[in-house]
Give the backbone structure.
Amino acid sequence: MEYFVNEDSIVRKIWGRGDTILFIFAGASAEFALNKAVDWLYFTGKLPSDPLGRLFSTVSYARSIVFAKKDEAEKSIDIITAIHGSVEAKRGMKIPDWAYRDVLFMLIYYSIRSFEVLERKLTVKEKEEVFNVFNRVGIRMGLSGLPETYEDWIPMRAGHLKEDMKHGALTDDLFGKYRQHLGYTRYILLLLVQALVCPVRVRTMLRLRGGSLLKPVIVFYKLGRIVKFDRFLKNLMLPSQYKKEIMALDVAILP
């Protein structure tokens, strides 16, 4: 039986832990807000109206790829492609390939960065595995201009960070939505996590500071896993109405 991602892959370990997933999307939520194609996220209205619900639906799609059999994962990717195609048809224009690449590049970067913050440093081979998985997603989607190797990805990622971001009105509006849906305390926690996991250019453009304050908290958090205190801490990160979804984050969809 062939799976899209090998059963012993580091990618399954990364996407099998709820805390790592939350850090991935904390970082991506900052970078999304700066992306020059952020207006596409506003076209359907789903992200600004319910950013947390959007997070969990995205997690569901990601896991339907990471933990699925190869043919099922490819069907999920095709569904994602079709959904975007429908949005493009409604708007009467095509989402540029560089915008798709940006999203894939975010998933690669924040998967690596979040795991390293919460767990341990990854080897070069493990980083290459993360790259290969998400690059295959891009290939299945028919995207052009994808890097062939992890080494090729590194300068392309740097170029995208330099060329594809701007701080505009939608940036501030989206962060306002984050604060509205999270509440003040959780919003401050989001900013601290973003300051910890985001690259320098993103932190600079958003004036994110204080990420180092979380380092001793993370040590305590990792110790808390032993007595299941980490679940309580995760509940602090998101509103109570998402308790069921938060609990499900730690249930890896293993074969």
In short: The chain has 15 helices and no strands. Residues 181 and 216 are 27 Å apart (CA to CA). The chain has a mean pLDDT of 86.
